[in-house]
Design a protein that fits this description.
The protein is an all-alpha fold. The protein folds into 2 domains: about 100 residues, no CATH class; about 120 residues, no CATH class. The protein is built from 9 helices and 2 strands. The chain has a two-stranded antiparallel sheet. Helix 2 crosses helix 3, helix 6 packs across helix 9 and helix 8 packs across helix 9. About 30% of the residues are buried.
Length: about 220
Amino acid sequence: MPGRNSSKIRTRVQAHNPCMMRNSVPEEGTLTAVSTLLMEWQAGSEKAGEELLLHVYAELRRLAAHHMRRESPDHTLTPTALVHELYLRLFTAEPIEWRNRAHFFAVAARQFRHILVDHARMRQADKREGQRIQVTLVDAASSVQTPLHDLLALDEALDRLEELDSRASRIVEIRFFGGLTENEAAEVLGISVATVKRDWKFARTWLLGQLTMQPPPAK
């Protein structure tokens, strides 16, 4: 598969100036274009890989910036660095059977989670208790916010939720870390939008209960 060389991938990503892409708006048909490019890139098209980067870079950096806004001012991981690390993990690991754009961002969501949690653990080792990263559980398509304690606690609670309800845990991961809409989450998981909404509501309430020591709701 093309694009597996890490130094080549790093050069491609660094070539994109985030300031120049700050105001970019996805054109009509971008969703279909990304899915098509993923298929062509997977089939061996180097050009498709280049165009794929152009289509998704701005959105990935927007997600990275959203995640980094909850960091303290002295954090060392920038949105651009976060996207660079994500690309290295996605494009230099074992080949993935990409299905479509929603699947791409669902996979990216898990990698975002791993990168952010690893970074939080490293920072926590050098800081006093009580200086953990504060987070708010909010999806990309809604203004409803659920205050939580910190990223590391959320990660641990998601692992516990996965044992109880793996689908609800996955919905939180792809919506919170990957920014997928309800429709996209439903597409990735092969379920209805109504089920996504129900699981998302349950998961938010359950996680809040876990992180504030309140009795979790019954599903």
